[in-house]
Amino acid sequence: MTVARSERLLALLQTLRRYRQPVSGAKLAAETGVSLRTLYRDIASLQAQGAFIEGEAGLGYVLRPGFMLPPMMFSQEEIEALVLGSRWVAKTADSRLAAGAVDALAKIAAVLPPDLKEDLDNSTLLVASPRRGEDRTDLGLIRRAIRAEHILELAYEDEKGALTHRKVWPFALGFFDSVRVMVAWCELRQDFRHFRTDRISSAAWTETRYPRRRPVLLKEWREAEGIPPQP
């Protein structure tokens, strides 16, 4: 499968997604810029790959809900975005998350056609190594607490080195070039607080779930900070 054909099939899928009722082959061919004969071949190819396209020549075609786009249908821009994102995570995140990014990219590469796999392997998009302090606690524990909505007990140093002990409700983890920041509700301060992970001396798991849902805390924090939702 050539790159041009991959992108053509992707365009056909995107066109079909815009219609809830059957659309004629002639109209699909006109919108995707191919001949009617090529369109019929492309529809057959998509059906063979698992796309739930109903219809036939003369009656029209419709894409039924539930079809997930296979990795081989990524465009070149999407592949570059995946490579760049994975490389950024590998450089910026903790070791387990970095390994997850590398493994995910390897799984995608395993099912790509040869020409697109070559694009992935030879990507020229590079990510610089960040400069930041070393974390003294396991970021995997923080991510686990966020997912499970559990309270953490922290020993935290401020910029002057003063140590405080906190119970916090972690609900977000921010990754920046020079620092990583845990966002949490602090029981001591009774407010949202931002904790640099390189200043967390220790973090202990508790079996206590915090009393409010993570999406609610995230929404209220965004509103308090004036931060729009991410796309």
List the secondary-structure elements in sequence, H or E: HHHEEHHHHEEEEEH
Relative strand content: 15-25%
What's the total count of β strands? 7
Distance between the termini: 32 Å
CATH top level of the largest domain? Answer: Mainly Beta
Low-confidence stretches: none
Question: Order of strands across the widest beta sheet?
Answer: 6-5-4-3-7
Structural class: alpha+beta
Oligomer: single chain
Which topology of the largest domain does CATH recognise? SH3 type barrels
**Count of distinct structural domains:** 3
What does the main sheet amount to?
A: 5 strands, antiparallel
Q: Total number of helical segments?
A: 8
Please state the overall shape, judged from the principal axes of the Cα atoms.
elongated
Summarize the structure.
It holds the Pfam family HTH_11. 43% of the residues lie in helices and 23% in strands. The protein has 231 residues and is of the alpha+beta class.
Describe the structure.
The protein is of the alpha+beta class. It folds into 3 domains: 3-68, Arc Repressor Mutant, subunit A; 73-121; 139-225, SH3 type barrels, CATH 2.30.30. Helix content is 43%, strand content 23%. It contains 8 helices and 7 strands. The strands form 2 sheets. The protein has a 5-stranded antiparallel β-sheet. It has a two-stranded antiparallel ribbon with strand order 1-2. Helix 1 crosses helix 3. The chain is elongated. The two termini are 32 Å apart. The model has no long low-confidence stretch (mean pLDDT 87). Residues 139-203 form the WYL domain.
